[in-house]
Design a protein that fits this description.
By secondary structure, the chain is an alpha+beta fold. The chain has one domain. The chain is 42% helix and 26% strand. Strands 1, 2, 3, 4 and 5 form a five-stranded mixed sheet that branches. A hairpin with a 6-residue loop joins β3 and β4. 24% of the residues are buried. The mean pLDDT is 91.
C-alpha cells in the first residue's frame, strides 16, 4: 500500500490513535517503517512538521512546550500520572530505530500509593533522597512514556 493511502486512512480514523496497532494490522502495514516512510514521503522538514502536529494533539491545550500526561496505572497504581514535557526533538532514522530523540523533563505528577491510597507527587516520593536512588522508577516512567507515544503515534521516543 502506498504510504499516502496510509496517511489518508489515519486522517479518517483519527490520529494519533490509541488503536493505531490495530489500524496498521487491518491494512497490513508494517508499523516499523512509519517514521522512515513519513520522511521519504514528506521529506525531513515535512516529517518534522507532522511530528510537531502529532505531539501538539497529544499535549494539554495552551502549553508552550509539548505537555503529555502519561498514565502510570501499571507502575504506581490506577489513577497515577506524570506529565512528560517535551522541549524539542530530532527525528532519528537508522536500521534499528523508528524514534524521535527528545529533550524533556518531568512536570506535574499525581501518585496514588497502592497500599495506603495516600496521594502525592514525584517530588514527595523522592523527597530529599538522591534521585539516582530512584533510577528504576525513572526508567519505568520513561518506558511507559515510550509505549504511550508509540501506541498512539507509530514512532517511539528516546530521552536525551
Amino acid at each position: 500500500m502506498e504510504f499516502k493511502s496510509v496517511l489518508k486512512i489515519l486522517a479518517r480514523e483519527g490520529y494519533p490513535n490509541p488503536n493505531l496497532g490495530n489500524i496498521f494490522d487491518s491494512i497490513d502495514y508494517d508499523s516499523g517503517n512509519f517514521l522512515t516512510d513519513l520522511v521519504e514521503t514528506l521529506n525531513h522538514n515535512g516529517a518534522e512538521e507532522f511530528v510537531r502536529k502529532t505531539l501538539d494533539k497529544l499535549s494539554e491545550q495552551g502549553q508552550n512546550d509539548y505537555v503529555i500526561k502519561i498514565p502510570l496505572d501499571y507502575i504506581i497504581s490506577p489513577g497515577s500520572w506524570i506529565e512528560l514535557i517535551i522541549i524539542d526533538f530530532v527525528i532519528i532514522l537508522n536500521e534499528d530505530s523508528n524514534n524521535i530523540l527528545i529533550n524533556s523533563h518531568w512536570g506535574d505528577s499525581y501518585f496514588i500509593h497502592p497500599g495506603t491510597g495516600e496521594t502525592g507527587t514525584l517530588e514527595d516520593a523522592i523527597g530529599d533522597e538522591d534521585p539516582r536512588d530512584y533510577s528504576d522508577l525513572i526508567n519505568s516512567m520513561r518506558d511507559e512514556s515510550y509505549s504511550y507515544i508509540l501506541e498512539r503515534c507509530g514512532f517511539g521516543i528516546w530521552f536525551n
